[in-house]
Amino acid sequence: MTTAPGPALRRSNDPPLLILTSLAAGPKHGHALAKDIEEFAGVHLGPGALYGAITRLEERGLIEPLASDDRRRPYRITAAGSEALSAAVADMRRLADVGAGRLGLTLRVAP
Amino acid sequence: MTRPAGDLDRLLRWYPSAWRERYGAELTALLEDELDGAAPGVGLRLSLAWSGIRQRSRSAGLTGDGGDAALRVRTGALVVLVAWALVVAGGAAFAKVAEHFTRVQPPGAQTLPRGAFDGVVGLAVAGAVLVAVGALLALPASVRFLRSGGWPAVRRRVAWAAGAAAVLAVATLGLAQWAHHLDVHQRNGGDAVYSAAFVAWGLLAASTLGLLTAAGVAIARRIELGRAVLRVEAALAVVVGAVTVGITVAVGLWWAGMARGAPWFLTGGRPGSHPTPVTLPLAVVAMCLVAAGGLAIVGLVRTAGSVADV
Predict the structure, then answer these.
(1) So what's the ipTM on this one?
(2) Please, are residues B101 and B285 in contact by the beta-carbon 8 Å criterion?
(3) Which of A32, B26, B159, B183 is most buried per CB count within 10 Å?
(4) Domain map (residue ranges) of chain A
(5) Torsion angle of alpha carbons B30, B31, B37, B43, nearest 10°?
């Protein structure tokens, strides 16, 4: 897994969180997931890291595969996955609010 | 340009077969998309190897907090069993290295080594009894497994172990007969041919121990253990793990005591001399025991950390 050059303090690059965030926008297969994550987070998840995270997420019931005739099997986020992502986003939001408040910044919500 | 699928499939050999069955085709498709006909680079190969090894470790219950707690406990206990086999091999070599150390003069030089040696013996007996109890507890489940059609899955490993044990028994009898016709000096390095045969016997014994352990692990991985039995096995594994670490520490103390009080004993030098107290046999013993101690810690932590979830 590699990250794009950026500031000294980087955004979260936890693969399960990135995958859940990507799938929150709709089902995707492996390659589409990797491209989407690279686009919105600037993080390139290698095939090994991506499928390691997909395995763990599926084991925990946070994502599920969709039926497919193609080898490129799409995945979608489950209700439990949406709940876990919401909790993680709320945690990050609290941290971001504290950081922004202490720096006197105004946070904008991405569309 | 497209690459033959077999080429990419080979990259997935690091993953466990059950995982490949489930995700292999998807991952191969992803690799085809990412590579777009190019050859996989060294970085990608290493990354897949590392991911595959991690997945094997997770699938075996060795790492990760998810999955079946019983599998994690069982794997931790089996790691302790492997550590115990290593400590038996290292301990046997230690017994040879320490032979006749109580004759060392002055007697004051023996105080720490004697205490440490008695500790090794006591811990070894305790560990052997606990391992035997663990094996006896698993015996009914092992018999059920073999009777219910499990034999083909373990036949090869058991056959190898049994064959090696038979060869070792014959070799031991032959060596004992030979040794009976030699004097003390010849048995302790004076006869080069006998010394070479003894080393070969030691290697055979270590290999047999390894094969017996592998057969035991192959069966233990497949048997069905009830919750209560698994908990007792877990407790035994934690104690045997601690005993293994204790033996490693006690052998270290013995060596330290001898190195301080009578270093010539370790190298076979002239009494009163001060040679470097590190020899090849001691290095072999140390490697076995340090590896055993490390594995024992991994196994007992894994077992103790997972048993509450069973």
Answers:
(1) 0.82
(2) no
(3) B26
(4) 2-103
(5) 150
The pTM for the full model equals 0.78
Predicted local confidence at residue A111, as pLDDT: 61
Residue of B11, B30, B46 to mutate when probing chain A, most A C-beta within 10 A: B30
Tally Cβ neighbours within 10 Å of residue B109: 18
A73 contact B CB<8A: yes
* φ and ψ at residue B7, rounded to 5 degrees: -60, -45
Q: Across the interface, do A54 and B23 touch by the CB < 8 Å criterion?
A: yes
Distance from CA of A50 to the nearest CA of B (A): 9
* Residues B46 and A89: beta-carbon distance below 8 Å: no
Separation in Å, CA B160 to CA A11, B155, B163, B212: 54, 9, 5, 8
In this predicted structure, what is the pLDDT of residue B263? 86
Q: Calculate the average pLDDT of chain B.
A: 91
Q: Which two tokens stand for residue B228?
A: 């209560």
What distance in Å separates the CA atoms of residue A78 and residue B67, rounded to the nearest whole number?
19
* A2-103: CATH number: 1.10.10.10
